[in-house]
Amino acid sequence: MNKSVLITGSTSGIGLGIAKRFAKAGYNIMFHGLEKDGAHIAKQVGEKYDVKVAFSSANLLKSEAIEDLIKQTITSFGALHVLINNAGIQYVSPIEAFPNNKYENIIAINMNAVFYASKAAWNQMKKQNFGRIINVSSVHGLRASEFKSAYVTAKHGVIGMTKVLALEGAAFNITCNAICPGYVKTPLVEGQIKDQAKAHNMTEDEVIEKVMLKKQAVKQFVPLDAIADMAVLLAKDSATTITGSSFVLDGGWSAQ
Questions:
Q1: Catalytic site residues?
Q2: Contact 28/53 with Cβ under 8 angstroms?
Q3: 191 or 221: which carries more pLDDT confidence?
Q4: Which residue ranges form the domains of the chain, and what is each CATH number?
Q5: Which residues contact 75 (CB under 8 A, 6 or more apart)?
């Protein structure tokens, strides 16, 4: 039986890149996202790589919807071996102008959803004596930037949660790790470029050069393939002792 993976936020950006890499490796995939053609995206990937797929547009703002998403995955594939908490949203603003509802939604989707999904998957992973939880945090889980109070808070929280789950899962062959990318050229980052341009009163090219890649030693966006390859590595049977760690793919940003 192929192993199964649930990837939140997997119908675009980093999540879709990870999903394609897992499909290539033979995993059955529960896709999740808000794209209107999400089911079609999932179907295309499944047909290309000859794996089973399913799709959900579960609202990650609601714990009950997240619990149902886990149940749907187990019902669809008979198991849940790998959970990748990838879904995220962003908003950029000085703190005095930061809307409360934006803060609350970022905390809910970027951090709280990681807790609810991991909690809901835990008993299944214990029963299997196998589980791989991979949380897509960010270099902002380790470093801060101006105007991102909610995002930086959430991503730091995810790294803390990762460590706790690693300790609790150790006796059951459940590992938990975080991947912390720098900037990846995704639709989310494209939106950030526009927001940062307004916040800093710069052109978009200036934002890329002087804000986004300024702190990186390697002046390139992080390749999506690097993140997907790291996720597949962490999901392997042989990764039993790799747990509680944050893997930073940031072009040398945090080396400073």
A1: 151
A2: yes
A3: 221
A4: 4-255 (3.40.50.720)
A5: none
